[in-house]
Specification:
The chain is an alpha/beta fold. Strand 5, helix 7 and strand 6 form a beta-alpha-beta unit. The longest helix has 14 residues.
Length: about 200
């Protein structure tokens, strides 16, 4: 059985933290996993900025409600669903994801959870598991699934390399340059061609 594992932000939807940064006018929040390989360092940095600026979970959720899938993402997902099974492996959070999953017609999502106090302040986060994307791919493979994985950021590299096949999708040039061993595509048409090759064992 084949299974396609996709990152969420930058692949199917815009980056949430960049959209929030634009909405609140804090350029430091533009930093994402495309820029910072250390996820814990990145999240502690974000939480510190939120605290300093007295920004809470509802402020982020309001911006998320205005985010729409990337152009072509829904057609891409619909075509892919007709061919095989899909799971979204993301480092986003349950508290962010629901309106986005609704707009993508409810794909299966594995993600993380925020710690939020009674006033709506984000105080920390809990990973589903360490290196959760790679570990999920390993678990699927142990169930005799052939896995294709794709993403655009540093935190996607381990899962892509663990999978039976995969590629970068619309990754920044810095990651493309650093990861010459990985195929890289920049359009949904080319993305689907790579998946078709995998599904057809080419």
């Amino acid at each position: 059985m084949n299974l396609i594992c996709l990152d969420l932000e930058g692949v199917l939807i815009p980056e949430i933290w960049i959209a929030f940064s634009d909405a609140v006018g804090i350029p430091e929040l533009q930093r994402t996993t495309r820029d910072e390989p250390d996820y814990d360092k990145l999240m502690r940095f974000r939480i510190d900025i939120l605290k300093k600026n007295k920004l809470k979970l509802p402020d982020i959720q309001k911006v998320i409600s205005s985010i729409h899938p990337l152009p072509g993402a829904i057609d891409f997902l619909n075509e892919l669903r007709e061919k095989t099974q899909i799971i979204i492996l993301s480092d986003t959070f349950e508290q962010f994801a629901k309106p986005l999953m609704r707009k993508l017609s409810w794909p299966t999502l594995f993600c993380n959870t925020l710690d939020v106090d009674s006033d709506g302040n984000i105080t920390g986060y809990k990973l589903r598991q360490n290196n959760g994307k790679k570990e999920a791919v390993k678990a699927f493979k142990s169930s005799n699934m052939r896995v294709f994985a794709a993403g655009d950021s540093f935190n996607d590299l381990d899962m892509i390399r663990e999978a039976d096949g995969g590629c970068l999708f619309y990754a920044p040039q810095s990651i493309k340059d650093e990861c010459k061993d990985l195929k890289s595509v920049d359009t949904y048409k080319d993305f689907m061609e790579e998946i078709d090759k995998f599904l057809n064992n080419l």
